[in-house]
């Protein structure tokens, strides 16, 4: 029996019923036997292997690598091996009946085998395994739907059970039998006694009463104020309902909060630190940070296990960061100490299993915002949600970028490896040029290797949003740290200068500061340019560039624009200057249009980019304004009508050419070759349009 829509619940109040059963086996055999060996034989060996074990126990000769099996062979304990065979046969038969392909029929093989198991279990007259044989008998009768017989066996034999996990399992079958014969009240009472809350709620739901995960909390608490499932259930509710923002969020939060305060008011629970920690979390979710700080202070003063102490300290850091009114020297000193401690936890708790998960899924999880590793998750949550916004608001943009760099790169740099989807292999990951292939490259050949992490994380989004001057200062601080905190952050960050120089150069291109852009882009290698997220777009090879190297696309653009600026300033002939201005305007238009990747890293909708910053919007708008102004001024500058008409033709301004410069050869050419009305009229003839529409 199971409850409806209840996730993550254990069958029993016991933390691990399976291991409790193994301990019970150790008591009647030898406590020197490792529990994992008992677990292997009892739960994981198949029927054939147990049959061989029984034969070896009968002979008492052959050794076995498993300590429990070896003890049974050495002691010739066929009493236990015979029972294990019967229990395994019962388990296999019941599993067959649970198959969706099983169609019950009285007298079929499964029912016959279960009846034989019942009879064989009844034949056992010993005391050592009497309760275990009774349990198998009840299981078989329950599967045969002989509920009255199952309950009768329990009532006649319950006093023979030891007070352990076997009695609890048998009592649950008896409770289930009571439910099926209509004794619902008795069944509910027995389920509560065994701690099977799920089955208890199942009974209530079947009576037409709606009980959910929240209703189970007081039931468990009333039965045992220190039941470990209380925190398990709270954690499940918080994860699935609260963090995921399910419907009735505020109501659910209030229900949990009231229950938690009731537990604290009664003071019966042993783990009060855990309850104050929970109250602090819920207070924060209810937007009462002051009360949350008070609860977390009380939690820190109470005794607790080391894991809980660490979790309390982490949440205390988060709350203090959240309650800080601004980022100043005092707060930075506090943050430095706590971030140093948190960083130690990241390193100390990084085991091999976690490393493998980070290598395999780290980039993907980060790109989609999934949880990866508790200590790193919490460091990121504190910095990204609380500290960085206060840094920026307080005017510490460079410090904000340093913190973001650590938040996004500390863990991946520490592990040092990531999974490459395109080659299905592990690649190095560190403070050098790095390519992280998109997972789509496994199915699309045109998705070549490129970096989809360093141009999509929170660090990059802020590099792309705060202003190029802050990136330039960041580079200086990384190369020449001003304090210990600078050094601490730089040591835990991505420090490949080419990454920063390329971004600075790109933003300077967007800001039309071409001479400065040349300085930075000259320091970026061709190899690095192949790793940017827009490197694939360089395959288009604009015809006016004379090289195929990605580096030169941006660098040559900067050089060409700088040369055009110099020519505009230098040229004295107004027509030469006007043509130069139009060439400059055309390049500006291209840099935010078809060749947008010269000045940006994204175009249109990009799922990794949550907003278009005002900084980037202003850069774009300024280019548009400059383009329009230069174009307007250029046509005003022309003195030669023929050259002006030719410029109009090049810009598809056919009407302007034929009306403003009608005597030119260009105007004559347009009149003689253009047969499309829209090519030389500003707007369609409304009367003509109406005529065609009517026809």
From TrEMBL:
This is DUF4034 domain-containing protein.
């Amino acid at each position: 029996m199971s409850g409806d829509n209840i996730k993550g619940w254990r069958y029993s109040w016991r933390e691990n019923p399976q291991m409790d059963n193994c301990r019970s086996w150790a008591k009647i055999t030898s406590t020197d036997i490792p529990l994992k060996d008992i677990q292997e034989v009892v739960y994981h060996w198949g029927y054939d292997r147990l049959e061989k074990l029984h034969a070896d126990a009968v002979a008492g000769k052959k050794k076995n690598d498993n300590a429990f099996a070896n003890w049974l062979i050495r002691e010739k304990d066929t009493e236990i091996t015979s029972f294990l065979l019967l229990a395994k046969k019962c388990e296999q038969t019941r599993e067959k009946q649970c198959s969706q392909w099983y169609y019950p029929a009285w007298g079929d093989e499964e029912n016959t085998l279960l009846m034989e198991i019942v009879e064989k279990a009844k034949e056992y007259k010993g005391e050592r395994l009497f309760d275990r044989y009774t349990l198998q008998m009840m299981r078989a009768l329950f599967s045969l739907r002989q509920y009255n017989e199952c309950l009768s066996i329990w009532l006649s034999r319950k006093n023979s059970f030891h007070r352990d996990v076997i009695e609890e399992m048998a009592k649950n079958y008896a409770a289930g039998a009571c439910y099926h014969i209509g004794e619902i009240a008795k069944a509910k009472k027995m389920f509560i006694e065994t701690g099977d809350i799920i089955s208890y709620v199942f009974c209530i739901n079947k009576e037409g009463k709606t009980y959910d995960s929240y209703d189970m909390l007081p039931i468990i608490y009333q039965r045992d104020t220190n039941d470990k499932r209380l925190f398990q259930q709270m954690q499940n509710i918080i994860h699935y309902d609260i963090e995921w923002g399910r419907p009735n969020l505020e109501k659910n939060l209030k229900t949990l909060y009231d229950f938690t305060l009731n537990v604290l008011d009664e003071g019966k629970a042993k783990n009060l630190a855990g309850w104050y920690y929970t109250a602090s979390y819920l207070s924060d979710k209810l937007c009462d940070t002051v009360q949350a700080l008070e609860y977390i202070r009380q939690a820190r003063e109470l005794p607790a296990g080391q894991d809980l102490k660490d979790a309390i300290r982490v949440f205390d850091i988060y709350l203090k960061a959240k309650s800080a009114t601004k980022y100043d020297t005092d707060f930075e000193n506090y943050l430095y100490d706590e971030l140093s401690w948190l960083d130690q936890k990241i390193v100390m708790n990084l085991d091999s299993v976690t490393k493998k998960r980070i290598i395999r899924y780290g980039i993907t999880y980060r790109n989609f915002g999934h949880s990866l590793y508790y200590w790193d998750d919490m460091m990121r949550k504190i910095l990204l949600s609380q500290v960085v916004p206060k840094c920026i608001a307080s005017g510490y943009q460079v410090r904000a970028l340093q913190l973001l760099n650590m938040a996004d790169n500390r863990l991946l740099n520490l592990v040092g490896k990531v999974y490459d989807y395109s080659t299905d292999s592990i690649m190095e990951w560190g403070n050098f040029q790095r390519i992280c292939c998109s997972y789509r490259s496994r199915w699309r050949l045109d998705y070549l290797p490129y970096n989809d992490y360093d141009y999509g994380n929170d660090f990059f989004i802020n590099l792309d949003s705060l202003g190029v001057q802050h990136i330039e200062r960041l580079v200086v601080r990384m190369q020449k740290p001003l304090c210990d905190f600078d050094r601490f952050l730089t040591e835990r960050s991505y420090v490949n200068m080419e990454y920063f120089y390329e971004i600075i150069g790109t933003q300077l291109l967007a800001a039309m500061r071409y001479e400065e852009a040349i300085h930075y882009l000259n320091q970026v290698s061709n190899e690095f340019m192949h790793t940017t997220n827009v490197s694939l777009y360089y395959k288009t090879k604009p015809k006016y560039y004379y090289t195929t190297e990605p580096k030169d696309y941006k660098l040559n653009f900067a050089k060409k624009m700088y040369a055009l600026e110099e020519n505009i300033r230098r040229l004295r002939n107004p027509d030469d200057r006007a043509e130069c201005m139009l060439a400059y305007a055309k390049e500006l238009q291209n840099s935010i249009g078809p060749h947008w990747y010269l000045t940006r890293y994204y175009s249109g909708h990009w799922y990794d980019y949550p907003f278009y910053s005002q900084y980037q919007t202003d850069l774009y708008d300024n280019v548009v304004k400059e383009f329009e102004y230069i174009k307007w001024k250029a046509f005003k500058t022309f003195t030669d009508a023929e050259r002006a008409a030719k410029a109009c033709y090049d810009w598809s301004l056919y009407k302007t050419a034929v009306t403003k410069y009608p005597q030119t050869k260009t105007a004559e050419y347009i009149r003689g070759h253009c047969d499309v009305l829209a090519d030389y009229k500003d707007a369609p003839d409304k009367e003509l349009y109406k005529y065609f529409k009517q026809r």
